[in-house]
Amino acid sequence: MLGPVDVLVILLVSIIAGFVGALFGLGGGVLIIPFLTLVEGVPVPLAVGASIVSVVATSSASAATYVQDHLTNLRLGMFLEIGTVAGAITGAFVAVFLPASVLFVLFGLVLLYATIVMIRARGIDFPADVRPDRTSRILALGSQYEDHSLNRVVSYEVTRTPLTVFIGYFAGIVSGLLGVGGGVINVPTMNLVSKVPVKVASATSNFIIGVTAAASASVYLLRGDVHPLLAAPLIIGVAGGALLGTRVLKVTPPTRVKVAFGILLAAMSLLMILKGFNLPVVL
Amino acid sequence: MELNRLVSYSLRIGVLASVLLSLVGLFVWAAGGFDNIVSAAGPGIARALASAFQGNDSGFIYLAIVILIATPVFRVAISSVYFVKKRDGKYVLISLAVLSMLVFALVSGYAG
Q: Per the CB < 8 Å rule, is B11 touching A88?
């Protein structure tokens, strides 16, 4: 049974989760699930159910700001959603053709590789001579945003779009399986594969994961895995934290975002690999 | 209205409504002496939602959760309408594809 102290503690922790989630284009589920299960002793299904609801809140709260500031690439986001939502449905309803453990190890290794590439290329956000692919040209995906840390308008093109949508499909599957948003996969993919500026990748990821998470959240809700006393403080906390996070991202230099994300990515990839080998890791 | 503002407002209103209802739910819960709330499932969700109108704490929170989950779905729906109005065929198709997958997820969720 949850008491007022539990609710207050969950509220405080979820402010941090919302902050980190908004900053890096994640839902914050990677922080919430371990906290609820390990510290609060919440059973895993209830923790995942509450987490996926909070992912919707983090994503919607931060996307509201990023979309208004034109940091989100709306067109790219909507196109990638085809892949991520299809993946989320596959993950939730259809028997996956790859066993979950193989998927985790595979993604762990991919993320580990992304970590190395991201840290090595930390000095440059994205290369200057990006040529848009055919899909990107047809859908007019290239765009620009005003960077408040660099004090200039940054124009960028989007390349290798089909590959990014393809990876997004698998990110959707992982998101359905884990109760997280899948942003940890989408952000490096957009930045490293499609050469999208890291801050745009983070903002666009936040935009995407709200939709991906809403699809899974409804399933958890109807199943009875969303507890009101977990959901309420989480919704309030992450929404507040997300507002703080969006302010910080705006004024942080892209290269610093990249390094911080790389460190987070390293930790996440190790957790995923351990999970794949069925070691007792909560994710 | 410009698409960015349309999307931004939809998200903002959805999150704000959800946060306020969650707060009301927690206040009612506190005022009632922190009673034990259990989670509802399936048809029980509809009953829980209806209980919000009798001032029930978990009713308010379930209303908050449902509004929150509906927010991104509404955002996709309103984008489709925008692209139809702009006669942007490619993006009408894209947003309708996402919307129909979401509706499929919701409907099959109900089916179990």
A: no
